[in-house]
Amino acid sequence: MKYTQWPKRDPIKNYFQLPNEIFLLSLSPGALAVYSCLLCCENRSTYQCWPSYKTIGRAVRMSANTVRKYVCELEERQLISTESTTVTTRDGMKRNGNLLYTIRPIQLALDQFYEQQLAQIDVAAERQRVAKALALHSNSAHSA
């Protein structure tokens, strides 16, 4: 059997796509790792998956609490949404299940990110305007 260094890649079976725009959002490395893990797990037709914090943590080498922190960051950035699920045990008891993650369109996150950046620019411009007005006011008070 001949060994090939570069095996034929089947993009449907063994790979998932990470949108290029994800790198424009200034995500923390941990959030990027968790997002990548969720994309890898997602059902490509429903855009949903339900790995546990522990499962994600094993994949990206983080504790469950750290994964939870990054899931919150991804939700705040509108990259994902989560829903609680319940599981019925054999003895009929209802228990909390894993979160159901829905991967949201990247454009929603980009729009929110750009709106935040514009708001920050507006705040900075207002601060500069007030500082300039205060400087002019203090200069005129000193010269009087």
Largest sheet: 3 strands, antiparallel
**Secondary structural class:** mainly alpha
β-strand amount: 5-15%
**Please, how many helices?**
4
Which geometry do the CA atoms define? elongated
The CATH first-level class of the domain at 20-105 comes to Mainly Alpha
Helix content: 40-55%
Mean pLDDT over the residues? 89
Spatial order of strands in the largest sheet? 1-5-2
Give me the CATH superfamily of the domain at 20-105: Winged helix-like DNA-binding domain superfamily/Winged helix DNA-binding domain
- CATH fold assignment of the domain at 20-105: Arc Repressor Mutant, subunit A
H-E string: HEHHEEEEH
Number-wise, the strands total 5
Descriptive report:
The chain has a domain at 20-105: Arc Repressor Mutant, subunit A (Orthogonal Bundle). Helix 1 crosses helix 2 (53-60), helix 1 packs across helix 3 and helix 2 (53-60) crosses helix 3 (64-76). The model has no long low-confidence stretch (mean pLDDT 89). Helices cover 50% and strands 11% of the residues. The strands form 2 sheets. The protein has a 3-stranded antiparallel sheet. The protein has helices at 29-41, 53-60, 64-76, 106-143; strands at residues 48-49, 80-83, 86-88, 94-96, 100-103. The chain is mainly alpha-helical.
